[in-house]
Amino acid sequence: MGRFLPDRRQLLKSASAGFGYLAMSALLANQVRSEQVTPSSPPGHLAPRKPHFSAKAKRVIFLFMQGAISQMDTWEYKPELQARDGQSGPGGGKLMASRYKFAQHGETGTWVSELHPHLAKHVDKFCWLRGLHTDTPAHPQAVIQLHTGAAIASLTRPSMGSWLLYGLGTENQDLPGYITINPPPNFGGSVNYGSAFLPAHYQGTRINDAGYLPNLEAQTPITLQRRQLDLIQSMNKDLASRPHAPSAIDGVISSYELAFRMQSKVPELLDISKEPEHVQKAYGIKDGPAGSFARQCLMARRLSEAGVRFVEICHPGWDQHNNLHRGLTNNCQAVDQPAAALLADLESRGLLEDTLVLFGSEFGRLPSAQGPDGRDHNITGYPMWLAGAGVKPGFTLGATDDVGQFAVEGKMHTNDLHATLLALMGLDHESLTYEYGGREFRLTDVAGQVAREIFA
Question: According to the UniProt entry, where is the signal peptide (predicted)?
Answer without folding.
Answer: none
